[in-house]
Amino acid sequence: MERVRDVRQLPKAHLHLHFTGSMRPTTLLELADKYGVRLPEALTGAEPPKLRATDERGWFRFQRLYDAARACLRAPEDIQRLVREAAEEDIADGGGWLEIQVDPTSYAPMLGGLIPALEVILDAVDSAQRETGLGMRVLVAANRMKHPLDARTLARLAVRYADRGIVGFGLSNDERRGMARDFDRAFHIAREGGLLSAPHGGELTGPSSVRDCLDDLDATRVGHGVRAAEDPRLLKRLADGGVTCEVCPASNVALGVYEKPEDVPLRTLYEAGVPMALGADDPLLFGSRLAAQYDIARRHHGFSDAELAELARQSVRGSAAPENVKEKLLSGVEEWLAA
Q1: Cα gap 71→83, rounded to integer Å
Q2: What's the predicted TM-score (pTM) here?
Q3: Four-point Cα dihedral 163, 164, 169, 172, nearest 10
Q4: pLDDT tens digits for range 121-173
Q5: Helix (H) or strand (E) holding 14
Q6: Which one of the listed residues 30, 203, 323, 335 is annotated catalytic?
Q7: Please, which residues have CB within 8 angstroms of residue 308's CB and are 6 or more apart in sequence?
Q8: 203 is a catalytic site residue
């Protein structure tokens, strides 16, 4: 019988982690206390909140909890702490590269405007890299619920700060709102500026939203993308194009996209040759971090250590890490397998 290796020791890249959602629950409680913020009960318990986002009310509740947590990030030192702790958590889980996703618009009111907010975030990422040694970059994400002109402003800003560590442009929030094609100009600006295109799709709506990401936004990666499993032709297109799906198993179950961990179509995607990067999405709300996603693949989908190693390789290859960082991580994967 194959010896089971520790997935926390497996070198990997983390490509789907939202900014506020990366916060430690203990940090949230301390910041709420610091600012006298009364948090919703769902955020103060020992267990993660019970969520379900497949209906409008459920998504609204999820968004309300996220907004309540974000209201506790009010000063540059709070941002510094959040980013440093996210890096520390990833390192403990075997992460060797992290691309953290943020819409700086959401933090602008607290931090003196859009540009100051982005600069505070980028400074925090710089500091966290120096303090922890983890390679980190930023993916700026527009919000589907806002006007496409806002997305264009963000895309121009992201391109302007590309040399400060921004590597990609995303599109987040409820994919049942706002057609992908409404944001095509913003993504064109981002791609022309050398940023990778990584919109969310194929989570709360079916395969058509993944196709829209490819057709309208020329996606390099797709945030989630799991619903592509329902369309064999789409799977082939993703595999042939080498489009990485940032799959977040615990999040899919917590939001009711799938009933149980074993229902998440990891095997279907893997066997179709679709590259995947397992991600934690919002650990604050879903209760599990990076290594736990690999543990789901092992326990609920029967992934062998050799297959887990291949998932880790796919996460590294799908990242925007420099070649020397990729080589180091990939050789670390081989060492893990050989151990």
Answers
A1: 16
A2: 0.96
A3: 180
A4: 999 999 999 999 999 999 999 999 899 999 999 999 999 999 999 999 999 87
A5: strand 12-18
A6: 203
A7: 7, 10, 294, 297, 298
A8: yes
